[in-house]
Amino acid sequence: MASYPSTLLTSGKKLVSSKSGLRMLCVNDAEKSAFEINEPNWQVDCEQPVCNKCSKKFTFKIRRHHCRRCGKIFCSDCCKNKLALPRLSFVDPQLVCTDCLHVAKKEISLYENLVPILTKGAEFLAKENQSVFCKLDVKSLRELVFNCLSPDGYLEGVLLREIESFQCLTDPLEQNVDGVGLVGVNIKYKSGVELKTLKLMVPNSIINRKDAVTFLLTLQKVVRLIFDSS
Ligand SMILES: [Zn+2]
Ligand SMILES: [Zn+2]
């Protein structure tokens, strides 16, 4: 396994052998998804005489195990679960410590439950009440793209990693699915050296409103997750 060659498999991606296992990474760093994170640095064996969780002393019999999510050293009781780590692009499930178990589950849920809502997309009202369809680009998982429903309309894409702030606009008189009356968002993002603002409003039509609110609440969660882990 360790000598697996780093060869090209699919366009834009390559299989890389790391100390933990095989990872499927973008050939070009600029193409990596908004969710991808680097492998953690591994704690050095000699610097950690006891388990980070239960303080059991390591001996010839009680061996050290590195958590692949945080890189810290644990005993086999405190680092025994193998889980998929999609944000680290591992091909196979990896050993995680008990603290990282919930982090890994949350990240699996990101891919299984949240990302599909964003790639499905929803309709909004943007500048001058133009109808736009907004979705996360399914191929790159990096950029919000817009399809203006009027022929002369255009909105530039927004890279998720370039979002600086996400301000929810609420109206207590609105009865939306979230119960807080979300009517839109102001998104501040970097475009080159410029800081720009994008205002997306939930459309009035009852049919589109639920999708739009769900999309925005999901986007907020996802942006927070990216902020927290960068
Ligand atoms: Zn332990
Ligand atoms: Zn861990």
Automatic annotation (TrEMBL):
GO terms for molecular function: zinc ion binding. Keywords: Metal-binding, Zinc, Zinc-finger. It comes from the Eukaryota. CDD domains: FYVE_ZF21 (cd15727). It holds the Pfam family FYVE. InterPro entries: FYVE-type_Zinc_Finger, ZFYVE21_C, ZFYVE21_C_sf, Znf_FYVE, Znf_FYVE-rel, Znf_FYVE_PHD, Znf_RING/FYVE/PHD. Residues 45-105 form the FYVE-type domain. This is Zinc finger FYVE domain-containing protein 21. It comes from Hydra vulgaris. The gene is ZFYVE21.
